[in-house]
Amino acid sequence: MSFRFSYTSSFTKLIIIVEFILVAYLLYSLTRNVYNSYQVDNLITQFEEENAKIEEGNRQKNEDYLYFTSEEYIDKIAKQNLGLINPGEEVIILSPELVSSTSSEEQESTETGVTKYYKMSNPQQWWYFFFGN
Question: Where are the chain's structural domains?
Fold first, then answer.
């Protein structure tokens, strides 16, 4: 077998070397194209995620715009800031003293209830939780 390859011409050896170089270049090109395709796919995925976030933001802003331009919102703001009263509505005004006395009574009752629980042991708290007094 070595007898056969010993008589190959220089031209044939040159053609084989050129073919190996060509195959190596084709493998390099294929690898580079596959890597570029992978990078493009990653960019497409990132852009799709970003587009989904932007679309969600746009949808939310559209809903906010529709809410803020609705008659209910305008009516609510007019009532809060300008004192608008629609026909058939009555306005109830609570005095600050009444509000503060009510809240202080509620606060005292909750404080006494809370301190009552802190003075109880854990089994007593469970007994009171399930059976009341």
Answer: 9-91, 93-133
